[in-house]
Amino acid sequence: MSKKEEIKKWIWQHERYPNFLYDKEKLSSIITDIEYLRGLLDGYSRLFNAYDIRKIEIDILTDEAIHTSLIEGEVFKRESVRSSLQKKLDKEFDARSDKYATASTDSLIEILIDCNINKNPLTKERLHGWHNCLFEHQYSKLDKINVATFRTNNDMEVISGAIGHEKVHYLAPPSCKIDEDIKNLLKYCKREDENIYIKSAIAHLWFVIIHPYEDGNGRIARAITDYILTKRTNTEFKLYSISTAINSDRKGYYEILDKTTNLFKNRKFDITPWLEWHLVILKNAMQSGLKSIDYLVQKTKFWDKYRNYALNERQIKVINKILDKGYDNFEGGISTKKYVSITKVSKATAVRDIFQLVKFGCIRQIEGSSGRNTRYEVDI
Fold first, then answer.
1. Dihedrals φ, ψ of 366, to 5°?
2. Residue ranges of the domains in the chain?
3. How far apart are CA 345 and CA 312, in angstroms?
4. How confident is the model at residue 292 (pLDDT cuts 50, 70, 90)?
5. Percent above pLDDT 70 for the chain
6. DSSP H/E element including 92
7. Residue 44: what pLDDT?
8. Residue 1 above 50 pLDDT?
9. Mind listing the pLDDT tens digit for each residue in 222-248?
């Protein structure tokens, strides 16, 4: 055996793998925070009727689908994802008239719905089903890949960089180890004696380490995370999107995976930093979920207040667009130019509509804006 072959660089080569080491005491404080936030989410869920809860769930799942794909550089249109979800979850949705859903978004939604509501134990066949949904046409970009079956190659690498200047971030275990590794992982997912938040983070990491498929490993790892986390929710679907939170720190995601899986950087075989990062991301996701739900409460109060005002269809459309976007996310507020763009009316009509909205108290002028740069915000 050569010296090169003796070098153990990757986490799966460590003699203790897959018995991961971590300091549970370091995680206790953030787990307490997460339990508190989960309690708040459960409490909020009881404030809404079934129709409103389903609307919230569709919004959250739309974000989850879009962002788990964006992490891997794949872009889906929001209206396509939302239509695919509505076909499955909204009994009042007219699927026959839908123009937005695509075969790809339909398949992605199949995974998200299954990992959220199907509480049966994870199996190898179920993982293959998820993989089939991702690559039912058997291609990943230009490359034909094996679908719904584990890889057979022994040189599966995670690389980045331009052609001729590639950097290897990770080398996955040889294919002969996959079946046994997956068997152990699935057994771990069934365990009831592990904290669910720690379990979701370890399962995520473990699946990425195994890297059993030729492509799609990250998305399936995040689906496994969702599957585990939904066991601690009052609602059918969890009311937060962890993929959205991960995508907000995409660079950090890949950096912590790199530091954890590379034994040159993680000589103590300690995954505590990964667990801390994952739990912070989960906490952020829950906080964002609470913020979104709180805003829905405010939106409901807004329309309760202005229900009897004689707003025209254009005004209602603009207000709803701002509210649906999320007040903090409607950059720059509403202007005459934006109003014209949304409603396709003349500038004069837009000015009259805006003036009336200000008069009613629906919107107010943003402090410091004036003249051509006058902007308005919803008065909540």
1. -70, 130
2. 3-295, 309-378
3. 13
4. confident
5. 96
6. none
7. 83
8. no
9. 999 999 999 888 788 999 999 999 999
pLDDT in tens, 37-52: 999 999 888 888 888 8
CATH class of the region 3-295: mainly alpha
Provide the token pair at 35.
């339990």
Q: Is 309-378 the same fold as 3-295?
A: no
Classify 291 as helix, strand or coil.
Answer: helix
- Nearest to residue 116, comparing CAs of 255, 238, 31, 201? 238
What size, in residues, is the chain? 380
Give Cα separations from 365 to 47, 152, 194, 340, 379 (angstroms): 32, 62, 53, 17, 9
CATH 1.10.10.10 fits 309-378, yes or no: yes
pTM of the predicted structure, to 2 decimals: 0.85
Nearest by Cα to 302 from 332, 322, 331: 322
Is 331's pLDDT higher than 70? no
**Tokens linked to 184:** 């152990």
Whose tokens are 């962890």? That residue is 242
**Alpha carbons 7 and 28: distance in angstroms, whole number:** 35
CA distances from 356 to 330, 347, 360 (A): 21, 14, 6
pLDDT reported for residue 86: 94
What are the DSSP E strand ranges found in the chain?
139-140, 143-144, 157-160, 167-171, 363-365, 376-378
Contact 250, 281 (CB under 8 A): no
For 350, the token pair is 């837009």
Contact 100, 82 (CB under 8 A): yes
Task: State the Cα–Cα distance between residues 92 and 25, nearest whole angstrom.
Answer: 49
DSSP 216-279: -HHHHHHHHHHHHHGGG-SSSS-SS-HHHHHHHTHHHHHHHHHHHHBTTT-TT-B-HHHHHHHH
Amino acid at 205: L
